[in-house]
């Protein structure tokens, strides 16, 4: 599994695409948080990072599919998946190796955002102006969100040998999980009880819950369950692809 992990990291950073994806993520966050007047934290009047945690999930919808789209699709395209399946590794080791490599890249993209926290801490009127508990909870929520999006992106990449198709499928699926259930709950026919359960079925409800600074085990279990489900579907997809090939 470690060999697959190292290969995936090396492959991502061996081309300019990996660097561009991370730079664009940081650039987009920087522009929205400190330059554009409608979303600038500097114009809010008080110290917080709410804008980052509201904007980052939407940027993740593009960043993470860009990270995962080639993980398995390129293996199919180059024919190395058949070769990999003959090696003394299990399907789960292949999936986990790819998954943890992509998660590592997401974390690498998140680490520089700590500069935003340090900047707001310096600009705050008092040392206690920032809600540190809420910020820690929001970062945890963002990590869990990224983990789930990564599992979805990996599943999308396991479906096809075309990286662009995998990218589009991942964006659509991530969006449905993040915002689709919440939007569906607002349809009048579901009002009166079903709307609440529809919201709970979506990622946004649980992400917003953790972002308030209160880590509820139910929210963590939700993220872990969806991630586990998508990784299991990825494994099934890999097996089916090889059998059919």
TrEMBL record:
What's the domain of life for this entry? Bacteria
Q: Matching Pfam families, A to Z?
A: ABC2_membrane_2 (PF12679)
InterPro entries xrefs:
ABC-2_transporter_component, Motility-assoc_ABC_perm_GldF
- Subcellular location as annotated: Cell membrane
Coarsely, its chief localization is membrane
Topological type in the membrane: Multi-pass membrane protein
Q: Name one GO molecular function term.
A: ABC-type transporter activity
Q: Name one GO cellular component term.
A: plasma membrane
Q: Keywords on this record?
A: Cell membrane, Membrane, Transmembrane, Transmembrane helix
Transmembrane portions of the chain: 12-35, 55-73, 94-119, 139-156, 163-181, 220-238
Q: Which PANTHER family match?
A: MEMBRANE COMPONENT OF ABC TRANSPORTER YHHJ-RELATED, MULTIDRUG ABC TRANSPORTER PERMEASE YBHS-RELATED
The name of this protein is Gliding motility-associated ABC transporter permease subunit GldF
Q: Which organism is it from?
A: Chitinophaga lutea
